[in-house]
User: Which sequence fits this backbone?
């Protein structure tokens, strides 16, 4: 079965760059892996839900792609499209903007299958990583609550709640590649 990878970014030029890099793969490798590059903003509102629905639809039915664009999600049954379909999310250096933590968490939750895995490659920058993990823990703890227990805050209502365990598993790599970490540290010191 062909592996399907969807690369997302919130900046259109980065999306174009990801698509260009994917095209540089040798043809023999591209036959094994389908790579799509899409714009995706972290947003905890209904607009973010719609955007995640579109990303989920790429995996559900790749033929929905037309000239790099997906058809509008509201043209099909959203109850099935709104469920996360990805088994793995890799996020690199994404938690430093704390004002987007709720949107990032909602985006991960809306696109991952329940019990999926989010790999977070994050350098330490102040308390942002610790604060993001507190939010993840709050959502995962809310998923253990039984009916009638206190509901999670409104900011967390974007997330699916399950009775069987965490919404998703978070794996952190703070020193994910020593050479990159050394380069990153030297850039921060030099700045």
Assistant:
């Amino acid at each position: 079965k062909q592996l399907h990878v969807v690369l997302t970014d919130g900046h259109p030029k980065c999306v174009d760059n990801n698509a260009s890099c994917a095209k540089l793969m040798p043809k023999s490798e591209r036959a094994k892996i389908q790579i799509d590059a899409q714009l995706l903003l972290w947003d905890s509102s209904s607009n973010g839900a719609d955007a995640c629905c579109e990303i989920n639809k790429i995996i559900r039915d790749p033929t929905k792609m037309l000239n790099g664009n997906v058809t509008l999600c509201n043209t099909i049954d959203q109850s099935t499209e709104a469920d996360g379909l990805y088994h793995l999310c890799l996020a690199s250096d994404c938690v430093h903007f704390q004002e987007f933590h709720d949107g990032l968490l909602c985006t991960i939750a809306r696109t991952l299958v329940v019990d999926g895995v989010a790999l977070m490659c994050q350098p330490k920058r102040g308390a942002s990583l610790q604060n993001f993990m507190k939010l993840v823990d709050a959502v995962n703890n809310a998923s253990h609550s039984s009916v009638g227990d206190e509901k999670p805050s409104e900011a967390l209502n974007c997330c699916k709640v399950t009775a069987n365990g965490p919404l998703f598993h978070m794996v952190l790599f703070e020193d994910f590649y020593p050479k990159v970490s050394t380069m990153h540290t030297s850039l921060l010191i030099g700045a």
In short: The mean pLDDT is 74. The two ends are 46 Å apart (CA to CA). Strands lie at 3-9, 33-39, 65-66, 69-70, 86-92, 112-121, 168-173. The first helix runs from residue 12 to 23.
